[in-house]
Amino acid sequence: MCNGCVQKEYPDRGNTCLENGSYLMNYIGCANCHQRDFVLISNKATEDDDGEELVTYDHVCKNCDHIVARHEYTFSVVDDYQEYTMLCMLCGKAEDSISVLPDDPRQTAPLF
User: What does the sequence similarity comment in the record state about its family (predicted)?
Assistant: First the structure.
């Protein structure tokens, strides 16, 4: 992973968790070849372990195959919620939790 290729290491992305793709707004350009071109995805792997899905891949420079960052995304179901996390030097860090129920119990207002 290369901190010379990104504007900010691990920016806070709130609840935006990317399973694939790249956050190009944080990409300065390749520190190796000094080109600012597309970032490709390589070495993508998906593991499923006890109900938790883990997706990993590398962001690489299109021109010189320099590894810009390693991306990790997880998905799991805990109780009545879908849990998502993302950790990547380029794309940032984020967490999200969404209810599998039609109405999220955390969002309902008390009646009295």
Answer: Belongs to the Churchill family.
Is residue 24 helix, strand or coil? helix
Both structure tokens of 9: 């290491």
Cα 1 from Cα 90, distance rounded (Å): 9
Q: In whole angstroms, what is the distance from residue 18 CA to residue 97 CA? A: 14
Amino acid symbol at 64:
C
Given the structure tokens 């998905």, which residue do they identify? Answer: 75
Q: Which parts of the chain register pLDDT below 70?
A: 101-112
pTM of the predicted model as reported, rounded to 2 decimal places: 0.85
Q: Are 60 and 52 in contact (CB under 8 A)?
A: no
Specify the pLDDT at position 51. 82
